Amino acid sequence: MVIRELFAYLWPHKWILMAGGSLGLVGSAAGLAMPLLAKHMVDALGEHRPMGGLLLALTVAVLVGAVVSALGTYMMERTGEGIVLGARHRLVDRMLRLKMADVDHLQPGDLLSRVTGDTILLRVVLTNGVVNSINAAFLLVGAIVLMAAMDGVLLMVVMLLVVVFIGGLTGLIMPTIRRTQKRAQEALGDTGAMLDRSLQAHRTVKANGAEEREIAVISDAATRARDKGLQVARWISLSRMTTRMAMQIAFVCVLAVGGARVASGALELSGLIAFLLYLFYLIAPIGQIVEGLVQLQHGLAAVNRIKEIEDLPTELIVTPAPLTRSEPAGSPPIGVRFQDVVFRYGEYRPIVHNGVTFDVRPGGLTALVGPSGAGKSTVFALLERFYDHQSGTITVDDRDIRDWPLAELRATLGYVEQDAPVLSGTLRENLLYAAQDATEEELARAISRTRLGDLVTRLPEGLDTPVGHRGVLLSGGERQRVAIARALLRKPRLLLLDEATSQLDAVNELRLREVIAETATETTVLIIAHRLSTVTDADRIVVMEAGEVRAVGTHDELVGQDNLYRELAATQFLLS
Ligand SMILES: Nc1ncnc2c1ncn2[C@@H]1O[C@H](COP(=O)(O)OP(=O)(O)OP(=O)(O)O)[C@@H](O)[C@H]1O
Ligand SMILES: [Mg+2]
After folding, report:
1. How far is the CA of 497 from the centre of ligand 2 (A)?
2. Weakest mean pLDDT among 311-325, 454-468, 539-553
3. Which of 110, 250, 454, 516 stands the most exposed, by the fewest C-beta atoms within 10 Å?
């Protein structure tokens, strides 16, 4: 049940929460003492008794009440921050470990809003909401007990009204508030997702003159969030209005019934005054309880959205993924084998690999070529175990990849993605991303091998220059070379390069071909290339088409044997 989840967040903070709550209680108790003292003062005034002691008691009650309440508030806020931190930590931890198949269907902007917005909601409900309600409940009980001591009949009148009213409120209004609040949070998430979409493709948006349209779409989502927020506000106003009315009705009733009882001599005037004061005291806690109930609905909505992510399965990473290179230098290269591999991205998706079979011996350069959509990048995604294949076997170093501990498998592979992403941060951070223990020498070597030296000297702060969000401050080719240098620094036993040289000019491509050839003498290199010039001297070339391997051989063999390859080569002027 969701409410249990809600309390699971509170549990780690129970002690400090209780301490804070108790302080609040002491503060409230000091407050409660005041009407009693006031009654005695009125009585003393009537009987011309000295009031020095009473005044002192009153002063102490005020001071203690104020200081202790302030302390209690601070402790509550502290707990609140702790709860937000805990929730964010859990959520982020979960998000970064999600399976790729789930990540493919999530919107980054929406995820962001869950980490920022929903956790804040959680905080409000768990501190203000729950604690104030509990606090208020004590206050309420205290006031009720004292009121009972004043006059039982009057109390019955008040109780009846309060019970009917709170019951109605929880039964009717609160569930609606919860539902509407969840929709408001969803609309906020949508706004984030839409904004993220436009910001990620800022250049595409501008180039296509789609600013107005994108702005309209985002504003629409924001307006929807506003509308949902207004709906919530209407229900909250309604609940506040009812609270107010109920208290006023109670006041009038008490005045009427109490006046009659004073007239008949059943109650002293000072008793009625004290009772009315307590009634005023009730207003605050009842208001708080109602607010607490409202906030509880907000919190439940937030927990719902947080849970949606927490319920998604994560990858099974047995050992924490090592950030440093796990393999000792000089460890031998490893081979790869695909045997009848069948794979589709989802149950209702078309088959992408339809019995893929090929074999890569340890060491050397193997190329994967074939038309777009043939399933080449998917080979790498399966090797990294971003997705699990449905049948067949994939082995790395003669070991089924399902038997490899995930972190170890990934530490063995170096992977340069097709769109060679660079993270925001400095150039150095990007290069050392997977090899934080690399020496300056190794770094310098990787830079010179990937011909990044010129770039580094040109940049204002050299290696410490920020590269911008996703590396936008670099050129496409520079990004590719950074990604390759990063992969090389990791010293993988199997290097996967996906179109890694597609954006390089002829000179840089030639240079990188040399680097790749050099790397292939130490590690196994598997490269996907559209430009066959990159791979003509590969030790072997695997030709893929429509999810199948149609031929394997060297460039010369394939030109002789395979029509598709010959065609590809001919269009790229590789045949004389
Ligand atoms: N994350 C994904 N979810 C669902 N389908 C996908 C996903 N990634 C790729 N596909 C589909 O799988 C098929 C093979 O994609 P893949 O990326 O392996 O092709 P490719 O051979 O690398 O093509 P290209 O040369 O254009 O990069 C494509 O039809 C694509 O639409
Ligand atoms: Mg691809």
Report:
1. 10
2. 311-325
3. 454
